[in-house]
Amino acid sequence: MSHAPPPQSTDRAGLDPAEAARRLAAHGPNLLPGSKPKGLFAIVRGVLLEPMFLMLLVAGGLYLALGDRAEAAFLLSFVFVVIGITLAQERKTQRALESLRELSAPRALVIRGGEEVRIPGREVVVGDLLVLHEGDRIAADAVLLDGHLDVNESLLTGEAVPVAKLPGAEGGQLFASTVATKGVGVAEVRAIAGATAVGRIGQALSATVEPVSGLQRASRRLIRNLTIGGLLLAMAYTLLSWLWDGHGLLESVLAGIALTMAILPEEIPVILTVFLALGAWRISKHKVLTRRVPAVEALGAISVLAVDKTGTLTQNRMQVAELGLADADFCDAGASELPEPFHELVEFAMLATPPDPFDPMEKAISRFGLRWLTDTEHVHAQWSSEIEYGLSPDILAMTRVFRGDHSGEHLLATKGAPEAVIDLCHLSAAEAAAILRQVEAMAERGLRVLGVARGEWQGASWPRSQHDFDFRFLGLLGFVDPPRPEVPAAIAQCRAAGVRIIMMTGDHPATARAIARQVGLSERAAVITGAEMAALDDATLRERLRHVDLCARLKPEQKLRLVQLLRADGEVVAMTGDGVNDAPALKAADVGIAMGERGTDVAREAAALVLLDDSFASIVTAIGQGRRIYDNITKATRFVFAVHMPIIALAL
Fold first, then answer.
1. Within the chain, which residues score under 50 in pLDDT?
2. Residue whose C-alpha is closest to residue 222's, from 272, 274, 167, 170
3. Residue 333, Cβ neighbours under 10 Å: how many?
4. 3-class secondary structure, 9
5. Is the pTM of this model over 0.90?
6. Are 395 and 467 in contact (CB under 8 A)?
7. Is beta strand 115-120 parallel, antiparallel or unpaired with respect to 107-112?
8. First-residue to last-residue Cα distance in the chain
9. Which sequence positions are flagged as catalytic?
């Protein structure tokens, strides 16, 4: 029963405090590993070794040697500006890992020496028994031993719907930093710190290298070629002037330096710095914050946009979308009233839901019921349940019991997995098959389905199991995480601009396919799952990706692999996401785009761009601005070369 403490057997006294202290000293605190910051000297050296800024240094030094201090100071000042920007960017990765560490539970309730004690999350050790309640953030990876829990794992999987956890190694795996949304339980800690699932994401994030943008690669190649060519020409000119024309050595060297200055386009680093900074300012007016300046230019070259489903294409907010009776269906979209035959179904779904729910699906039931039944006799806000039967390993349904109108009579309201509710109602094989066909049809439309039943009970003592009650099946509730309203138009614009969109989600393939159909993401229905990906080598998977736009049931490391394979195939990849599971892929993409409102700190710190309003349409606007900026840089570079040609002629 859901309000009772979790069952504990007498042999589960937890760790002895002394043993816990020994393990803490031996294995260290339950904290995610931080990365060692790069030193100031290493950062400065990395900047100065860039060909673009080596050219600035050489040009500044030459101007200084020629006595033009103002020009030298102007050019050299840009080197210090870039060093400052690079220092700020280096701190970004450090903050991302620090944000990951802060996700670990600050406090944990554990059983030690037979007593429940609350300790800091960093002091949890392997072998501890965690006592978990609704709303608790789980402190470490563990296995559920007693009780039952619904756990929101969207932080790791991107899937919005809580996952039911039952005792046992297979169905009772709990992960650090996820949140218990319903139920109580006792779990044994199996992994802490960097050995947890979220810890492995941290390690992947710290090991992922931000890619070099196309503009950076092109500018390095250009400066390298110009420098080599300019130096060879200057040396040849100096030797010709000294040995052939008979001029003095100093005069010849100065003439060679003048030719070098004419050839080297020292304006290009200044143009790139100014244009990219202006571009970042322009897209900020469209609610897009730039965290890595070169990404502004990369926006204009994007060929593939990889999007997370939950929170990016959808609102990450469950709502009741459909109701199903044996002979009728109700769709919430565009409806003006709820037909009378559905009132009882919604009434008992509300009665089977706690009055102040924490679970997203139960919140959706409450919102739906209050919206359609507020002024009817079917809302019983003043009722309180006398007893509750929670989920159990053998019955995936919950029942709340209320006192009826007549003496000794009680009303039962039940909701749960359709198969469990069908079993509780003792339906015939034909009736059960008809309902399951209805459930399957709703699931194909991307809906999460719950069954609802009602019952009556008269008796002096309460049965031990819900199976001892008599229930009548009422109908089905279909839940959906609705798409954002602006997404279909934005996707159409992307496709018109030649940008291919790929969905990467941890959700079920049917749900991914349904959302893709609603927003017009792809005309291809094929889906590749994480399990299928794991069986393919890189070459085969790269070929498969050319024909598939939907990737479902992905693990965090698989998202990272997909981004890396797309880039290896010559694509310029932008990746959107909001969860911790997206962070490594966001960092590895040419342009990582994080959600600012719903996104986690980890995702925002790992990304190059942050959408301040979480609007998918802002991505399209930013891509348009990126293409405009790229065109402006190209035009300015051509102008610089056009100006340098007569200067070179004059120097000669």
1. 1-10, 35, 93, 97, 100, 104-105
2. 272
3. 8
4. coil
5. no
6. yes
7. antiparallel
8. 93
9. 308
